[in-house]
Design goal:
The chain is of the alpha+beta class and 143 residues long. The chain has three helices and five strands; from the N terminus they run H-E-E-E-H-E-E-H. A hairpin with a 3-residue loop joins strand 1 and strand 2.
Length: 143
């Protein structure tokens, strides 16, 4: 890792509430009160970019991202789902999977921008455990 980059928090911690994992990657719920259901799919080894992975690994990682997106759509019923792999602050390959609603604080802007309104979208009742169950039960097998 270049000297100007801080120590990698995703190598040292789960990066949120651990929901599911295998030997390749993990799914965590971010702790963001404004965005319930915000998940991250995190590679279990340190890599900075998608092109650091071979073609099979890229496919395997995206299958997990798509499975999380599908689970979020079933449980959270968002107006939109944002997928992002930024890594500007944490240069460890991970994907954000974020349910978005037309009445959330930032819509239609990215959640990292200036808020567009006060408050946050009300999450469905019992969304947390339902989402965890949906992710765990529908995660594609290793491949």
């Amino acid at each position: 890792m270049p000297e100007h980059m801080p120590a990698c928090e995703l190598c040292a911690t789960d990066g949120g509430r651990l929901v599911w994992q295998d030997d390749f990657c993990r799914v965590v719920l971010a702790r963001d009160p404004d965005y319930p259901g915000f998940c991250r799919v995190v590679l279990n080894r340190h890599a900075r970019e998608m092109t650091d992975l071979d073609a099979g690994e890229r496919t395997r990682l995206m299958e997990k991202v798509f499975a999380v997106e599908a689970a979020l759509r079933r449980v959270m019923n968002p107006d939109k789902v944002n997928l992002a792999s930024l890594g500007n602050l944490v240069a460890h390959l991970h994907w954000h999977v974020i349910p978005r609603y037309i009445d959330d604080r930032h819509f239609p802007r990215p959640i990292w921008g200036a808020p567009q309104r006060d408050g946050s979208h009300a999450a469905p009742e019992d969304w947390g455990e339902r989402l965890v169950t949906e992710i765990v039960n529908n995660m594609p097998a290793r491949g």
